[in-house]
Amino acid sequence: MVFVNSMGQPGSAVCSELESLHRLGIEFATGHHVDLCLLRERYRFLRSIYKHHCNADDEVIFSALDIRVKNVAQTTLFDHLFELLNSATEIDESHRRELSSSTGALKTSVSQNLAKEQKQVFPLLIEKFKHKEQAYIVWRFLCSIPVNMLAVFLPWLASSISIDESKELQKCLSKIVPGEKLLQQVIFTWL
């Protein structure tokens, strides 16, 4: 089993959510009613997931790869959309267009970053690390995300991926989560 492949599932869930949120941004821009509070909360959640994902990448993935592969670079994300959503008290035409444009830019930026990760970083992890090392890296990646975020993220992830992907994720986690019964119960309850 290639443990690193299961790390792509959160990326596809994030891209799917970004696509949905971008559609809402376009609806808003074209004058349809969109609940900005709900849109803001969904972006806040996604922002938090992505922030922890990037931090875990830096802390675990890139530091592990840096030992065996030099010059592995990461990309950064901008916060302009979140500033727009936080100041979304006015809904004039230019604000609607800017919000729609920003949702598209965010979707493109994050999707490209996650695709680059799957095309460049994951193959390096698979090539340079044995299965046991991959499992350890994936576990460290999960451990670098705060528990309160994992409690929200894992159920969201499970509901955002296909049944087959969910089974694969559970199979992978059953092999990498340490054998402590309580720890396994907590992790698998969240799924």
Description:
The chain is 78% helix and 0% strand. By secondary structure, it is mainly α. The protein has one domain: nmb1532 protein domain like (Four Helix Bundle (Hemerythrin (Met), subunit A), Up-down Bundle). Helix 1 packs antiparallel against helix 2, helix 2 packs antiparallel against helix 5 and helix 5 packs across helix 7. The protein is globular. Keywords: Membrane, Transmembrane, Transmembrane helix.
> Major sheet, described briefly?
none
Order of helices and strands: HHHHHHHH
CATH topology: Four Helix Bundle (Hemerythrin (Met), subunit A)
Got a strand count? Answer: 0
Q: Quickly name the level 1 CATH class.
A: Mainly Alpha
Transmembrane segments: 137-158
Keywords: Membrane, Transmembrane, Transmembrane helix
Keywords for this structure?
mainly alpha; transmembrane helix; 191 residues; 78% helix; transmembrane; 8 helices; Four Helix Bundle (Hemerythrin (Met), subunit A)
